[in-house]
Amino acid sequence: MRSGFPDFRLGSVLATSFTATLTERRGEAVERIPTPQRLVDWLAVSGLAVESCTAAQLDLARELREAIHAAATATATREALPAGAVQVINDRSVQGRAAAVLTPDGERRWRVADVEDALSVIAADAISIISGERDGKMALCASPTCMAAFFDTSQSRTRRWCDMNTCGNRQKKARFQANQRKNSGGS
Ligand SMILES: [Zn+2]
């Protein structure tokens, strides 16, 4: 918790880190970008720092987030992509002027001027994982209160949880407790 807001769940894939700004979608949902400033904070830690964000830009961001979630979920379950979600992702992708720049150390950085630019980078990242262009597989988290779509890049493609530290851990703990009950003889 920082300044009273829920922490971010940051992963290694930009698009699904972004969809993870709303967690426990099938349980008691936690909104991790509740204010425009929190979106600014999230963008900063994600390499897409912008100066400011308006309420309307936050709405755009959340619309994109839900579109990515819907399209990624459809991909994971091998269903047809929802047309509305595809439209939103494409709109955000084409309406930004982000540029990739190379640092003297040979790293890639994004140059973005505003939230729209940052969203275009996220939309393009979503396109690259949903289209199957990148090495990995879309999958759904095995936690019934989560079911977040995540991008599995493990060798065996058998990752079960969106995040080992939260969903994975909770599941392990639940199993452990169930075993303890069994071993203590029950009645
Ligand atoms: Zn999960």
Automatic annotation (TrEMBL):
Domain of life: Bacteria
Residue ranges constituting the Zinc finger CGNR domain according to the UniProt record: 139-179
Signal peptide boundaries: none
Pfam families assigned to the protein according to its UniProt record, in alphabetical order: ABATE (PF07336), zf-CGNR (PF11706)
InterPro entries, alphabetized: ABATE, ABATE_dom_sf, Znf_CGNR
Protein's name in the database: Zinc finger CGNR domain-containing protein
